[in-house]
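Justification of computing resources. Each target in the renewal requires a structure prediction run like the one illustrated here; the chain below, 207 residues long, is used simply to show the kind of job we budget for.
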Amino acid sequence: MSELDKREIRKQESNPEEDKNALQKSIVMYLHDLVYLLAGVMLVLLLLFRVVVVSGPSMNATMVDGDYLLLVGNVFYGDPEYGDIVVASKESFKNGEPIIKRVIATEGQVVDIDFNAGVVYVDGIPLDEPYTNTPTNLEEGIQFPVTVKEGCVFVMGDNRNASNDSRNPEIGQIDCREILGKAVFLIFPGNNGGSIARDFSRIGVVS
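Resulting structure tokens:
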């Protein structure tokens, strides 16, 4: 056997130490790539989704105090539509503390309320509102009728007589840029401050 053949055989023979080092390098590279992948996924999720907790009675009984909601962030949330449940931050109200309300009207629409009858009108048509907990009898200072401004929405809580919303001059119409996102899924039911049992059958799509 020639010397050249012997060298070739030695090259082909396995070197345990080299194999171990190669394996360690492969694992390090894999973990390195995995960390970057997970960081990218987390960034997308933070931009797309967030979790919020309902505070207060203004959305009873659609939402109760302590409900955990999945929110589609405003980066990916399209134009607000009637019926959407949104979370907004209005600096003029409690220094921007987030509020959760339902969109009642969008830009260009006219909102009027008959507080005696408890009926809300949009563009002269009375709304069918099976989601409300009470009729709309509470006046909060805004004079009606009002036309929703460009780029804004008019919002109200489903618990109409226990909600600070667009009827309140401190809140008024919500600029769409003040919307943090749309509630899409109830993750974990609240217990309304301990006054009710958690109803896990409520988990699901928000409407």
